[in-house]
């Protein structure tokens, strides 16, 4: 018995986030007919859409690593604090006279990778639940970041470093280009090799994967390492964009944005499947929400409220209870209700 | 090692760490060994402790509640604003805030239980909701001038001629006793531990799993709202930024107190000890003066890591038997 088109469409994890993004774009277009317009000023591409992509670049980088971690059935709560540590490390290097961009970037990425490695070891080798293991760095990372500068904001005035945050390459914002390139690379590596399958297998059933000969612990550890690396890059990007590193504000609540983007994008928190494209759309959706809310008259400090509402709605829609109920509403009722009764 | 001793090992380890820290601090800093400093450990950390009581019970059930810090901030600004600006009676305002906290907890519990969503995600959304709500009320702090509030925040129970317990410290002690009784003397407490130990078994035994789970998040929300009242009275003003990152400290206090984060095992006494460890570290850093306050978080993080690894080790031993 073939599925109806509607059923197949509803099952695709990408439908909801794309529909949501489209809705937001329409709302914005109604408000401001020039919303989608792109222009060129001083040789740089500009427009609202470019702004959204540029502001979203940091979250995009974070969400990439987070997608992998969540796909293994885990979660990384420490990325916000790790961003602060990496940003402060970069700031420290610049203020202490290291002018080589490569060195500064390597220091920030190294700090992130080290943090990711610690998380990965705790989860993969010590067998501690991910929420708890990453909580340690979430708590102490903020303290370490404050300690690097003794609680002060570090000013970073170095054009070469600032470039990775707000530079333009061939007329396009470098941060956004970097994020898009990373997604393309990740998609290529994960889907053209077996790596993506390994990650999904481990998220689905770690025991079975181990018996099938997968190096479960190593793959898991690698996912956290990459997530830490992403957080390190994200921290450097924020520091570069602000031309300053603030140990308190840098990366504040970013772990939430990253997790929310991944979940909204259709990657299940239970692990076992992931969609990078979904996470990409999820970040854009959250980023588009900000100008939309501003136009709807919601002040920036209050914006967490509608974001939280959105997440709760997505959670409820994604839950088994709602899916079963939706299935029963659609045609093919007898078959659907039998299938739903078999589920535990 | 006998099994009984092994079960108590986390608690004993916590007590040993507390004793070691306290003795070191007393030997290192003049005047640290005094009733005043000891009493202030309770007064200064009243809000954290009250929230940690609710967190302990949630963690018993195998869950986690990340919304408590935001509920503290919401309660603080909500009560201060409606009492000072809209002249609502303080008791009524406090009752309304407690109702909001409890209702939020119950709602989150229902989403977690009936829609089978991960607790950390739902309570994270709850955190966004309450923090955003607090900022919606006001982003400025509101000073308390209400006579009842002032009397409550100035009231003290004298212990010695220099040491005294403030109202909020007494509330904290009451909550610790209440939480201890609820956890270890009632059917609800037993159900919680059963649920945290193994949900499937709890369900098969016919325990009211749903009611227990919704109930424990509601209780945690109630505790968090009360913590917000205590913090507001202690600081003499309502602020929507109150309680930022308080949930992390509360979780750390509970875990350092020897309660198993995977649920099903723990003791309220441990939470008291964990709270005192937190307080001693904070006071010692304040006494020292030359150390950066950021060290509090780093030391707490390191202790958290140590206790988690200890728990893991013990659990592995228990599983091997």
Characterization of the model:
The complex is a heterodimer of chains A (344) and B (321). Chain A is mainly α and 344 residues long. Chain A has a single domain (5-330), classed as ABC transporter involved in vitamin B12 uptake, BtuC. Chain A is 71% helix and 4% strand. Chain A has 16 helices and 6 strands. Chain A has helices at residues 5-11, 15-31, 48-71, 79-95, 101-125, 130-148, 159-166, 174-192, 195-204, 206-211, 216-242, 254-264, 276-295, 304-318, 320-329, 333-342, and strands at residues 39-41, 44-46, 154-155, 168-169, 172-173, 244-245. In chain A, the strands form 3 sheets. In chain A, strands 1-2 form a two-stranded antiparallel sheet. A two-stranded antiparallel ribbon of chain A has the order 3-6. In chain A, a hairpin with a 2-residue loop joins strand 1 and strand 2 (44-46). The longest helix of chain A is centred in the middle third of the chain and has 27 residues, at 216-242. Chain A is globular and about 65 Å long. The two termini of chain A are 23 Å apart. Residues 333-344 of chain A have low confidence and may be disordered. Chain B is mainly alpha-helical and 321 residues long. Chain B has a single domain, classed as Orthogonal Bundle (ABC transporter involved in vitamin B12 uptake, BtuC). Chain B contains 14 helices and 4 strands. In chain B, strand 2 and strand 3 form a beta hairpin. In chain B, helix 2 crosses helix 13 (268-288) and helix 12 (246-256) crosses helix 14 (294-320). Chain B is globular and about 60 Å long. The two termini of chain B are 13 Å apart. The mean pLDDT of chain B is 88. Chains A and B meet through helix 6, helix 12, helix 14 and helix 15 of A and helix 6, helix 12 and helix 14 of B.
